[in-house]
Amino acid sequence: MTAIRPFESFSSSRRITSHAALERYLTSALRITNNSEIAAEELTETSPNRQIRTIQSLRLSLQYDNDQNGIVDGSGDNSTPYQIYNNGNSLTITNRNGRTYSQESSRQWDITAAANFNNGFAVLRAGTTNRRIGQYRLWFTNSEGQITSETRWRSGAQLSDEGFEEIFSTDFDGDGHVGSPPVQLPEDNDQNGIVDGSGDNSTPYQIYNNGNSLTITNRNGRTYSQESSRQWDITAAANFNNGFAVLRAGTTFRRIGQYRLWFTNSEGQITSQTRWRSGAQLADEGF
């Protein structure tokens, strides 16, 4: 940080002969680091004519957005108007009539972020009441910060679906990712021909096919999971006649040790099935 010379350095050997010259000197000497405001209090210079020139206060200000949410730090507090941070400058958010907004403007929401959007800005208002926690409304402004339109209340999932996670760099739907989660390739670590984890709870069963997954469906598009039937679980799938054979193992006391087969086409759609068979029958049939 460049030091400011002591005020005594303004001597007759280095006269500053005008108010403007004194301001230029101070402005060039002051350097701002972490403080947003520095005041030079009542500096006095005696001219040869002994005229007293006084600067009551010289204020140099910079705007900050240390949390990088697009809102000027400290704006909105108490009755201070909310301001958008725009490349080191501030834009006060107003409506068409010039009204400004702060934390005192509404009990239902606080402004929590702003971001560039369509040659202006999108301003995020987060719900603060019990009814609105986890819900959001958006203002859209022009390049000067004047509101031009707004949305109704939306859930975090809706904002995510509409692409606002990337715009605000915020995980609105709570899936641990900003934007679409990375695509996870299907796995078949137990090598039973069924995608690992598919069928669990209400997740549809899927056939593992050379690194890809095929959801098992009937002709009407219905899918199946462990919740589909109390009589069986799908335990394996294998290539069969230009499609797949899908093994269903009995789970009730009556069906333990018995099996039924589905036969599917190459897309995983069921085309036919067998009756219940014993393990011995399946062995005899070459399965």
The separation of the N and C termini measures 81 Å
* Global structural class: mainly beta
Give start-end ranges of low-pLDDT stretches.
Answer: 1-17, 25-45, 50-60
- The run of helices and strands is HEEEEEEEEEHHEEEEEEEH
What does this structure look like?
The chain has helices at 19-29, 156-161, 164-168, 279-284; strands at 37-46, 52-61, 83-86, 89-92, 109-117, 120-127, 135-141, 147-150, 154-155, 206-209, 212-215, 232-240, 243-250, 258-264, 270-273, 277-278. By secondary structure, the chain is mostly beta strands. Strands 5, 6, 7, 8 and 9 form a 5-stranded antiparallel beta sheet that branches. Strands 12, 13, 14, 15 and 16 form a 5-stranded antiparallel beta sheet that branches. The chain is elongated. Mean pLDDT is 84; it is low at 1-17, 25-45 and 50-60.
SSE layout:
Layout lengths: L18 H11 L7 E10 L5 E10 L21 E4 L2 E4 L16 E9 L2 E8 L7 E7 L5 E4 L3 E2 H6 L2 H5 L37 E4 L2 E4 L16 E9 L2 E8 L7 E7 L5 E4 L3 E2 H6 L3
Antiparallel strand pairs: 1-2, 3-4, 5-6, 6-7, 7-8, 7-9, 10-11, 12-13, 13-14, 14-15, 14-16
Write a short abstract of this structure.
With 287 residues, the chain is mainly β.
